[in-house]
Amino acid sequence: MSELNKNVVRRLFEEVWNKGNLPVADELFSPNYARHDSSTPDVGRGPESEKKRATLYRTAFPDLRLTVEDIIAEGETVMARWSCRGTHKGDLSGIAPTGKQFTISGITVGRLANGKIAESYVNWDALGLMQQLGVVPQLAKAKAAKP
């Protein structure tokens, strides 16, 4: 079961997010799928919510590429550590395209039921993304105290 669940999550990253094959979300998500991610706008539940999220980010970053760095499964739970890169060429929730590239990382913990993703908890470097796009200033580096 764990290997099958890992394959569902891999398909999510590769087919929905990297290739933009949005209809695959209907195969991967339960009708009441819930995503817990304080860094992304709430766009509802179910497969349609993931299609909206993927469209939001793929429109802003047409060359978006997510890479699964590690994936671990235990029963119905799958944890994926991932990295993401892209170029800001489209509107991102009112942020005009900057043409800047970014690289960030994140972790997704998904709960599957009957072979479909029922719930996920996502934590990713939203601040790093905004800093790399130049929307939020970089934090000043602390100067070393002189002896």
Order of helices and strands: HHEHEEEEH
Residue runs with pLDDT of under 50 for 5 or more positions: none
Strands side by side in the biggest sheet = 1-5-4-3-2
- Strand-residue proportion: 25-35%
Shape: globular
Question: How far apart are the first and last residues' alpha carbons, in Å?
Answer: 59 Å
Radius of gyration: 17 Å
Q: Which bin fits the share of residues in helices? A: 25-40%
Largest sheet: 5 strands, mixed
What is the overall number of helices?
4
Mean pLDDT value: 94
The total count of strands amounts to 5
SSE-based structural type: alpha+beta
Summarize the structure.
The chain is an alpha+beta fold.
Task: Describe the SSE topology.
Layout (H helix, E strand, L loop, with lengths): L1 H17 L6 H4 E8 L10 H14 L4 E10 L2 E11 L13 E13 L2 E9 L1 H8 L14
Descriptive overview:
The chain is an alpha+beta fold and 147 residues long. Helices cover 29% and strands 35% of the residues. The protein is built from four helices and five strands, in the order ααβαββββα. Strands 1-5-4-3-2 form a five-stranded mixed β-sheet. The chain is globular, with a radius of gyration of 17 Å.
Could you list some keywords that capture this structure?
five-stranded mixed sheet, 147 residues
